Amino acid sequence: MEPTIDALLDGLLTQAQVTEFSIKSGDSTVRAAMEGQKHVNASLNRLFASPAPNRVLEHVLESPHRDHRTLPGAVAVSAFARRFALAAVVALCIIGVWRFSGLFRTNSTNDPYQVQPWRSMDSVYHDAVAAGFKPAWVCKDEDEFASFFRRSTGSRLLLAEASPNVHTYGLSICNCITPGTLYLLARVENSEVLVFADRAARDPGGWKPATPGFHLFQRRIGDAVLYEFTQLNSPHLLDLFHLYDTSVARPTDGGPSRWQKDSADGARQTP
To answer: Longest C-alpha distance within the chain, in Å?
Structure first.
């Protein structure tokens, strides 16, 4: 009979089986078994009752200064958690400071004056064309234009007004004649043209185009040496460069009267 009582107390019997068992065993037997099981369940609930959620939260958030006993393992876990939280806060502060300071840092990968690998004039030309012929700078006025040339060549140069078939795009830097060679990007008669500029004293000379069908023309002006790299049979930009005379008042309508006539040799093709 014991297995049947166990099945009854565990709730495994159907209602028909409970009725049948009650008739055979008597209602008093069933009531006694059920009453005993209630006492057992009550004792188990008192011994293994789950803590209330609010009590668990209070225990987790209770002050570290509270005087209470904890197991050694719990102390180690608590200390580790505090150290981890502190490290996370410090890391977030460092990342925040670094990102904020990035607003004021110069991105070295976008710095045109960063030292580049050496390239020939042919390579600079073909790379510029492949990249869409876009300059690093578009000067806002003649002063800025002249300042760029002074930095790279030692002479403040300006470009006189050209014919309508000449269009200049801007300036860039390359490592060619020296690591700080300046070059002008322009289009003449629908053909891309580059003018390389550097200090004449640092020019080793002997430059020749390696690409068939291209020509290289040279001109010295002031402290600068200029090379026009072009597919055209004659230079169209070299003779437009003039020394900038800061002592002469600059008219507001522009024109060549603001530039000083130089005594340098005219453009010539490299041998």
So the answer is: 133
